[in-house]
Design goal:
By secondary structure, the chain is of the alpha/beta class. Helices cover about 40% and strands about 20% of the residues. InterPro entries: Flavoprotein-like_sf, FMN_Rdtase-like_dom, NAD(P)H-dep_FMN_reductase.
Length: about 130
């Protein structure tokens, strides 16, 4: 089966985003997929905010994206955008395979329409599928 990288962009350890993402992780694992969780908030701030893309934490995250057959990204919505910690990671030129990204956000779909364009830019022009859960 596929290896799925499950990325939580929530800055909070206890969040609806995290609960939604971990629920999906369990469902994917039950179907035989290998699920690799990545909580962006656990990456050191100096790695996320610094300019050194060779920082070990950034190298490790980049490798996780590269090895994944699919990527699920969970993020809270702040003013119709995704979280700052997630943006800090994606700004490191993280690349994903084509047509393999699902973005989950516990918010109304109408509020997230601008975020689809932002993710398309962050994911180098690839248009992700967006699933909103209000």
């Amino acid at each position: 089966m596929a290896t799925v990288l499950s990325v939580s962009g929530s800055p909070s350890a206890a969040s609806r985003t995290g609960r939604l993402l971990r629920h999906l992780d369990r469902r994917l694992a039950a179907q035989g997929h290998e699920v690799v969780p990545l909580d962006v908030r656990t990456i050191p701030a100096e790695a996320l905010l610094g300019a050194d893309v060779r920082h070990p934490a950034i190298v490790e995250a980049t490798e996780l994206f590269a090895r994944a057959d699919g990527v699920v990204i969970g993020t809270p919505a702040y003013k119709a955008s995704y979280s700052g910690v997630l943006k800090a990671l994606l700004d490191k030129d993280i690349t994903v395979s084509e047509d393999c990204t699902l973005v989950l956000a516990p918010a109304a779909a109408e509020a997230l329409t601008p975020a689809v364009d932002q993710f398309s830019v962050a994911l180098l022009g690839r248009l992700p599928a967006l699933a909103a859960a209000s």
